[in-house]
Amino acid sequence: MKEVKIADLKAHLSSHLAGVRKGQTIIVFDRSTPIARLMPFKQVQDDDLIIEEAIDPPAAAKKVKPLKRLKNVDVDRILAEMRTDRS
After folding, report:
1. Which residues, in sequence order, are CB contacts of 82 under 8 Å at separation 6+?
2. Distance of alpha carbon 77 from alpha carbon 45, whole angstroms
3. How far is the C-alpha of 23 from the C-alpha of 41, rounded, in Å?
4. CA–CA separation, 48 and 77 (whole Å)
5. What residues make up the domain containing 56?
6. CA–CA separation, 31 vs 7, rounded Å?
7. Domains contained in the chain, number
8. What is the DSSP secondary structure assignment for residue 72, as one 8-state letter?
């Protein structure tokens, strides 16, 4: 995997795209922050796209804090009550 800054990508775009055509993956950086990934295009199934997205979640998803677990809560009982209310 190759890493390039935006200025280098702009200056040598044809060369970098030639590398991508040969199978190389390029990570584009804005200063020290990765902002894009250039990789060869391939025909994929929808499942492949879902898997690939799961590997690299959006930045906003990384900021979500997990919920605190409540003590002494009977989740099964609550769900059973909610299900009976629907019918």
Report:
1. none
2. 40
3. 9
4. 38
5. 2-86
6. 10
7. 1
8. S
* pLDDT at 8 (0 to 100): 97
Question: 29: closest CA among 62, 5, 61?
Answer: 5
Q: Are 20 and 26 in contact (CB under 8 A)?
A: yes
DSSP codes of every residue in 1-66: -EEEEHHHHHHTHHHHHHHHHTT--EEEEETTEEEEEE-------HHHHHHHHHHS--HHHHTPPP
Digit-by-digit pLDDT tens for the chain (87 residues) are 899 999 999 999 999 999 999 989 999 999 989 999 998 887 556 666 655 555 566 666 667 777 787 888 888 899 999 998 776
Q: How many residues does the chain have?
A: 87
Question: Could you give the CA distance from residue 61 to residue 64 in angstroms, rounded to a whole number?
Answer: 6
34 closest CA partner among 62, 64, 59, 15: 59
